[in-house]
Specification:
Blueprint (H helix, E strand, L loop, with lengths): L3 H15 L7 H8 L3 H13 L3 E4 L5 E4 L8 H8 L20 H18 L3 H5 L15 H7 L1
Antiparallel strand pairs: 1-2
Length: 150
């Protein structure tokens, strides 16, 4: 449902959110988020233009979030790079469709529900999750844990 661009933007924002106060270079972001550097550059430009991220050049520079992680939602990030578009009129341009047909009405309802769900989740909530899997981090599994997981 999400585009690669939106997924990449979310990875970058989550990584920066975990490093508040420590700017990250594009190379480090690319390495840690597994996003191709060239593609990441375009994503970061969009995030900077939307004022979700600050960019500083030079020694000690890099990219960092422009506001606290509890003020940025998944929806903010997604809408910055690939907005969730609602269906307000017949996408086929059929003049006889003064209202949405059942198909497009259901699709729009799903888009609305997705946007609402994304708007309820802040980056802070993702970072503070009780889930033992840490976003964007490889977690070493001990032999006993591995045996139990099998």
């Amino acid at each position: 449902m999400l585009s690669k661009t939106a997924e990449y933007a979310l990875r970058a924002v989550v990584f920066m959110g975990a490093r508040r106060g420590q700017p990250a270079s594009a190379d480090l972001l690319s390495e840690k988020t597994k996003v191709p550097r060239r593609y990441l550059h375009h994503v970061l430009q969009d995030l900077v233009n939307a004022q979700l991220v600050h960019s500083r050049s030079g020694p000690g520079g890099g990219y960092e979030l422009a506001c606290d992680t509890d003020q940025i939602t998944i929806l903010d990030v997604v809408n910055t790079v690939e907005p969730i578009e609602r269906i307000n009129a017949c996408p086929l341009g059929l003049k006889s469709h003064k209202q949405l047909c059942p198909l497009h009405q259901e699709l729009d309802r799903a888009y609305a529900a997705t946007a609402a769900a994304f708007d309820r989740v802040t980056i802070r909530k993702l970072l503070d999750s009780a889930n033992p899997v840490v976003p964007l981090c490889e977690v070493k599994i001990s032999q006993t844990s591995y045996s139990k997981a099998k």
